[in-house]
Amino acid sequence: MSRAVHVIGIGTGSPAHVTGQAVSAMRACDVFLVADKGEAKDELVAVRRGLCEELLEAGSYRFVTVPDPERGPDASRDAAQYQAGVDAWHAARARRYAEVLDALPVDAVVGFLVWGDPAFYDSTVRIVEAVGRLTPVVMSVVPGISALQVLAAEHGIVLNGIGGPVHVTTGRRLASEWRPELGTVVVMLDARLQCVQLLKRAPDLYVHWGAYLGLPQQELRAGRLADLADELVTLRAQLRERHGWVMDTYALTLPTGTAGGEGTEDTARAIG
Q: pTM of the full predicted structure?
């Protein structure tokens, strides 16, 4: 018998971001599995607990934390080492989840609460697929509001220029990929704010940055990257020290009139 597993996008932490479809899927779950990433990141677990407490009937579900395997020093790895490290981490996660699933009643429906949307820089779908190779599961996926959407909404901007592209990438790839023709570039998973490497190449870049989007501790900054770079580096370090973790994303645009730029200069000036 295959176990039902729901992978549910819950937005960026605000109960208001949880869609009706997501609430219905949550109500169908008997057990939620959440990765325990240690004391420094307890708030990530607490937010998920809070969403369940607010949106679900008390006593209708169980909340199970699963110790997360060590991932390793991603920053010091080259591309091949990074891929191998992530593959090993995912495999270890899948084994731990499969062990927990096998200990549950066979008819228990299991949910994974995914920050943002399961399709954007989250590997829960891949991991559940790997779990399915160890123990039978039937997976369904519910979309959620992504950090890209919340970033644009909080800054009051449209990510694409008229008829223009939006390029989504990671901090690891930004410096090698960026070029004006990409249009707006949205950067995810950038613990080192690699955008500062672009200052000499593109001094007119504008940045719309946000951390803890949708949460009470949300921080926003917008303006010329050259003017904000030092502040962002310092602020990000302070926030990580204060909270034990930080999730942030940002969009880079060129001002209207430059090559590749149909950007948001006026908006950035108004907000920043």
A: 0.86
